[in-house]
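Sequence, please.
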């Protein structure tokens, strides 16, 4: 099966290990992975800030970049959902709405793709330690991916899984929200850190790099011993 990787900006610029783990995992599961070098930002930061028209050029560039993909897979529920949002942005546009619908029809978040398309719930990973999992807002509430990451995590050999209290609560990142509403964001992430501590977990896992960056940054500033990992890194582990 041929898969085209939508890496995302955060992975490309800050967390390349997530991208590497994603590619290695998909290849181990029998996929041939392609990477369009002309992919850029999906336009989500400016779009969520209200600059819809100015975001359209980035969206068009991305539709062209992934035009020939059979399956598009991203290690970010938030960014994967943004591809689904394009069809609403270009609604009524005779040229771009059909392209946007086609893009959405073949775009998947990583765990969603593994469970729903590859029909795999045990990737043969092993990872020893107590973990908890943060459910990101876009991935669960908008993309609708809730069970896939938990199914995969629970089948990792050696993992001790502890459900995160108030898991449905936002971590306070929200892209530009954390910049514009810094004080509110700080209170939200502090609540999330407290919930993580309640689990006694050694590792916090998530499927969105933005959430991990936000929560991980707060854990570090508060000198908490919890490590953060993307789910791709855990599923690719053979420790």
């Amino acid at each position: 099966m041929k898969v085209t990787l939508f890496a995302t900006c955060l992975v490309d610029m800050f967390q390349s290990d997530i991208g590497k783990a994603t590619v290695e995992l998909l290849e181990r599961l029998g996929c041939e992975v392609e990477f369009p070098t002309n992919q850029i930002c999906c336009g989500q930061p400016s779009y969520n800030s209200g600059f819809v028209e100015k975001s359209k050029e980035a969206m068009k560039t991305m539709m062209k970049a992934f035009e020939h993909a059979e399956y598009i897979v991203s290690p970010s529920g938030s960014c994967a959902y943004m591809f689904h949002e394009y069809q609403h942005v270009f609604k009524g546009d005779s040229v771009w709405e059909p392209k946007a619908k086609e893009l959405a029809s073949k775009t998947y978040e990583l765990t969603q793709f593994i469970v729903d398309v590859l029909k795999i719930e045990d990737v043969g990973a092993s990872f020893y330690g107590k973990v908890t999992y943060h459910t990101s807002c876009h991935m669960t509430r908008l993309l609708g991916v809730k069970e896939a990451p938990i199914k995969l995590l629970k089948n990792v050999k050696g993992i001790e899984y502890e459900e995160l209290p108030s898991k449905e609560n936002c971590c306070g990142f929200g892209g530009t929200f954390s910049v514009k509403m810094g004080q509110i964001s700080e209170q939200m992430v502090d609540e999330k850190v407290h919930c993580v501590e309640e689990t006694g977990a050694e590792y916090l896992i998530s499927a969105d790099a933005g959430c991990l960056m936000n929560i991980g940054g707060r854990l570090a500033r508060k000198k908490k011993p919890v490590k953060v990992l993307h789910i791709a890194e855990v599923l690719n582990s053979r420790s």
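The CA atoms of residues 38 and 65 lie 6 Å apart.
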